[in-house]
TrEMBL record:
Family membership noted in the UniProt record: Belongs to the pectinesterase family.
Signal peptide: 1-24
Catalytic residues of the enzyme: D229
Protein name as it appears in the record: Pectinesterase
Length: 367
């Protein structure tokens, strides 16, 4: 278990004190709460009796500590702090992510203090097990305005096993103003890794705001804003208690399920749909698009026809369905004829967590 010899650790400590912290040079020994080993834990690791050892927040030589009762407990994940004014370990979100070792196998947490971070952020494929924690979607925001194609989002999450909490992602192109710019794809976030969850996050943009591209994802109490195809892609996702805000008329979803046996689909549970203009619940980006709205609150923003066929001449493969929705937009009497009626069994299966969580990955995430 011991991968770091005592002299090495201690000399690193001295070195880091000499170097201090800087943006490009991670501060290897942070002042964070948990990262002390003392007493028997320290001697067990080979340190002299009585030593108190501070360790780097990303070192992963030990996964267990002893609690007061003597039982082994999972070591709380380690935390680095991003703070624009320099009171943390990093000044930018990307530099904190870059400091995580490649092929990391332990959960690490990056806490992002309040502020508007004007940067593009990527979690590369080889950096899994990262928790990004903002101070709330309105207080901690990551903002950029790239556009023209869907390939240049503000935030790109490519690794598996990612948790994001209390963060706002904005693509500011055309967003928030009375801009006359041409409507173009302007993605705020792309989610392409498996086992990724978002809690209390915000996704803001106009066209193609959230590219829910691939993998199994869970969105809880998030706010998603846009006008055209603003929740789109081929992922397998549950959106629970989310607020969907139409900033002007268009299409809420553009799901991209490709084949009849693909597990992908978007399930909206207990959400609210509101905003200005008149919007379709979705249009199929691919012939087997699957989108379900369940027990959600629809304002009059929902177009009475419900769904748009886009360029599909045959809508047979498309699975668009609604159950138990309420509010002025929930009347289904004028919906397109090709909206599906699903059996109670299918509704139960699709709206339970097992739709995305059959192997229990969500429970294993430390949140
Ligand atoms: C991480 O894992 C990948 C895939 O196994 C491997 O190609 C890559 O070299 C590894 N990177 C490091 C820094 O260990
Ligand atoms: C419909 O048109 C869009 C935009 O040109 C295209 O991306 C999509 O693949 C088309 N869908 C189908 C099912 O052909
Ligand atoms: C539905 O949403 C509207 C706002 O769009 C809100 O005023 C209303 O209270 C909601 N209804 C319920 C039952 O939550």
């Amino acid at each position: 278990m011991v991968r770091y010899s005592a002299p090495l650790l201690l000399s690193c400590l001295c070195l880091s004190l000499l170097l201090g912290s800087s943006e490009s040079q991670p501060r290897w020994y942070s002042n964070h709460k948990h990262y002390y080993y003392r007493g028997s834990r320290a001697t067990h690791l080979g340190f002299p009796r009585g030593s108190q050892v501070r360790r780097s927040y990303w070192q992963n030589d030990v996964g267990l500590i002893m609690t007061a009762s003597g039982a082994a407990a999972t070591l709380p994940y380690r935390t680095a702090v991003v703070d624009q004014s320099g009171h943390g370990d990093f000044k930018t979100v990307q530099s904190a992510i870059d400091s995580v070792p490649s092929n990391n196998t332990n959960w690490v947490s990056i806490q992002i203090n309040a502020g508007t971070y004007r940067e593009k952020v990527v979690i590369p494929k080889e950096k899994p097990f990262i928790i990004l924690k903002g101070r709330g979607r309105r207080r901690t925001k990551i903002v950029w305005d790239d556009h023209t194609s869907i390939e240049c989002p503000t935030f790109m999450s490519l690794a598996d096993n990612i948790i994001v909490k209390g963060l706002g992602f904005v693509n500011s192109y055309n967003y928030g103003g009375s801009s006359d710019n041409e409507l173009l794809p302007a993605v705020a976030a792309e989610v392409s890794g498996d086992k990724t969850s978002f809690y209390g996050c915000g996704f803001s943009g106009v066209q193609d705001t959230l590219w829910d591209n691939a993998g199994r994802h869970y969105f809880k109490r998030c706010t998603i804003e846009g006008a055209v195809d603003f929740i789109f892609g081929n992922a397998q996702s549950i959106y629970e208690e989310c607020a969907i805000r139409v900033v002007k008329g268009g299409f809420i979803t553009a799901q991209a399920r490709e084949t009849a046996d693909s597990p992908s689909g978007f399930v909206f549970k207990g959400c609210t749909v509101s905003g200005v203009g008149l919007s379709y619940l979705g249009r199929p980006w691919r012939p087997y698009a699957r989108v379900l709205f369940f027990k959600s609150n629809f304002s009059q923003v929902v177009d009475p026809r419900g769904w748009d066929p886009w360029n599909l001449s045959d809508q047979n493969g498309v699975i668009y369905a609604e159950y138990g929705n309420f509010g002025p937009g929930a009347d289904t009497s004028n919906r397109v004829s090709w909206e599906k009626k699903l059996s109670v069994d299918v509704w139960e299966k699709m709206t339970s967590m097992s739709f995305i969580n059959e192997d229990g990955w969500l429970e294993r995430q430390p949140y």
